[in-house]
Specification:
Length: about 400
């Protein structure tokens, strides 16, 4: 690579090589002409021939330069055309790739938009569910506060126990087997009276258990408060057992026992775990302490007793129905016997008809063969009465 007058020339380029050779030859010719002009002597013939050869060489060199120039121009034209074709192909491919990329991008953006919309929809649904749950929690908190208000008031707490008892009894017993808020002959009103048969007779269930002593027992923070709460618990439960025994156990009117309903399993467990003497005192006073679970089991036992009593009451009707059923069975047996007799007679008639048909077939075959010999004794026709069998009764 050389640089002349600010223009760079590549020494490996054939055009540059040919131009350099032509330039050198031209300089030689100029030098010879100058020499000839400076020497007025006659130019020798060999020199003239050499000059002539040099002129022809210059013409050939000029022709070669022209050929090289044309070839280079043609090659440049083909190269330009090839480059233009390749550029067009590349541009078309780039346009196709760009279009595909744009389609993929649009599809990806559309899918992302759909997923985003779906996610936002699901998020909104979850937020609405959270709002509903929050509303339920708020409502439940209000219900808990209302329940606390109910349990803090003695009258409302008794009503709550009665409602819970009514729900349990209504699920375990028929409606006609119990009465709620039944007034007895002594003027006392029982929370629930189960109409059991004698014995044992109607039994009362009381639902007004005092929860103040139990709540004080669980609120106790010091030994003195705990001791006081335990004493108060014993006193309250004993008094309640005595009141139930005096108010709801009446000779000749109710059973010789009553049930004390506890609206909480925790209170029931507390009594049996830490106050077993109170449970024994209740047994002695014929007052049985029940929780919601044990009350349901007891009521199912009472349901079986009621069912057995009702079956005993209906024993006469059951025996009458059984007698009628036995008579109907005897009639069916008689009808079946008669039907069997008819079937037997019909079977004998069918057998006789089959025998007669077989004999008739034999006679028809002999007639067809022109065989008029005497028939054997076994071929004699059987009387119709014998075929039909005995007369029907």
């Amino acid at each position: 690579m050389i640089q002349l007058a600010g223009v760079e020339f590549d020494l490996n380029d054939p055009v540059v090589l040919v131009a350099g050779a032509a330039l050198i030859a031209l300089m030689l010719i100029v030098v010879l002409l100058v020499v000839m002009l400076l020497r007025p002597t006659r130019v020798p013939a060999p020199l003239v021939q050499q000059l002539h050869h040099l002129g022809r060489g210059q013409d050939q060199l000029r022709g070669n330069l022209q050929t090289v120039s044309d070839t280079q121009a043609h090659a440049q034209t083909q190269l330009i055309q090839s480059l233009e074709a390749r550029l067009g192909t590349v541009q078309l491919q780039m346009q196709q790739q760009l279009a595909q990329m744009q389609e993929r991008t649009n599809a990806s953006l559309h899918g992302s938009a759909q997923r985003t919309t779906t996610s936002l929809t699901q998020l909104q649904e979850r937020l609405r569910a959270i709002d509903r749950a929050q509303d339920n929690i708020t409502k439940l908190s209000g219900d808990v506060l209302s329940l606390q208000d109910i349990l803090s008031n003695k009258q409302t707490r008794g009503a709550f126990g009665e409602i819970q008892l009514n729900d349990i009894v209504s699920k375990a017993l028929p409606k006609d087997s119990y009465s709620m808020q039944k007034t007895l002959s002594n003027g006392r009103r029982a929370d629930c009276l189960i109409h059991l048969p004698n014995p044992p007779g109607p039994i009362v269930i009381d639902a007004k258990f005092p929860l103040e002593a139990y709540e004080a027992l669980h609120r106790a923070g010091t030994d003195w408060e705990l001791k006081s709460a335990v004493a108060n618990m014993r006193t309250s439960v004993r008094k309640h057992i005595r009141d139930i025994s005096e108010k709801y156990i009446l000779d000749g009117e109710t059973a010789d026992g009553a049930l004390m309903f506890l609206p909480s399993e925790a209170v029931y467990a507390e009594l049996h775990a830490n106050f077993p003497e109170l449970v024994r005192e209740g047994f002695d006073a014929r007052v049985w302490i029940v929780s919601p679970t044990t009350c349901m089991a007891t009521l199912h036992t009472m349901r079986a007793i009621l069912k057995d009593a009702r079956m005993r009451e209906q024993a006469g009707e059951i025996r009458k129905t059984l007698r009628l059923l036995h008579r109907d069975v005897e009639l069916v047996v008689q009808r079946v016997g008669k039907l069997d007799t008819h079937f037997r007679q019909a079977r004998e008639d069918l057998d006789g008809i089959g025998t007669a048909a077989e004999r008739a077939g034999k006679r028809a075959a002999k007639l067809d063969n022109f065989d008029f010999e005497e028939l054997d004794a076994e071929d004699e026709p059987t009387p119709l009465a014998a075929v039909k069998g005995p007369a029907n009764s």
